[in-house]
Amino acid sequence: MVTPVKDTAAMIAGMAPVLDPVLYHFCTGPEALAAHAIATFREDEGLSLILSDETASAHGLQSDLPMQRITLSVHSALDGVGLTAAVASVLAEAGIACNMVAGLHHDHAFVPAEDAPRAVALLVDLAGQA
Q1: What is the CATH number of domain 8-129?
Q2: Among 3, 59, 115, 130, which residue's beta carbon has the most beta carbons within 10 A?
Q3: pLDDT of residue 130
Q4: What residues does each domain of the chain span?
Q5: What parts of the chain have a pLDDT lower than 50?
Q6: What is the per-residue pLDDT for 32?
């Protein structure tokens, strides 16, 4: 079992961002689609889903903003502090929108597809500076 990284500088230095080529859409849909989502969240307004472009298209749920996922490969601790802030800050300074989703093992930054290559380059540079 890999020990989660908690130190801020170590999380940033080891984030090793990986771009997922799949396009994703944040949308609301029926409970039946939850099994096809890579992530869900229950909000007062309904079930939020992150669906692949293929699944969203098949159900008429494409959004106006296709996103790409950048996985931060470091196994970050759930109580680690600063990784999300560092990632969001460097992307914000570059004018890139970022929606962070934390999993048990990794954090994932969803960015507009058109900005994804630039976002990865910025995160690789950030990791190199840590």
Answers
A1: 3.30.2130.10
A2: 115
A3: 86
A4: 8-129
A5: none
A6: 95
